[in-house]
Write a structure and sequence with these properties.
Length: 73
């Protein structure tokens, strides 16, 4: 019975040999890697488009307020 308990330990030690790990490829610099599209990219584009539209609407509102104030004086 003790031999059965020792056997997995011996196999585990044999699996962890003293040879060095194989070298891995050098990491690729971030500048050369292609960006992977995510499902949120389209949502981010839509969100930015909405911000741009809101900015235009706010500018038009400010112009209209100035015109109304100028006409009221």
């Amino acid at each position: 019975m003790k031999a059965l308990a020792v056997l997995p330990c011996v196999l585990a030690l044999a699996a962890c040999s003293q040879k060095p790990p194989e070298p891995q490829a050098a990491p690729v610099p971030a500048a050369t890697t292609a960006r992977v599209a995510t499902p949120w990219d389209d949502l981010k584009k839509d969100e930015q488009r909405a911000r741009d539209v809101q900015k235009v609407v706010d500018q038009q509102d400010a112009q209209q307020r100035k015109q109304i104030e100028a006409a009221g004086q």
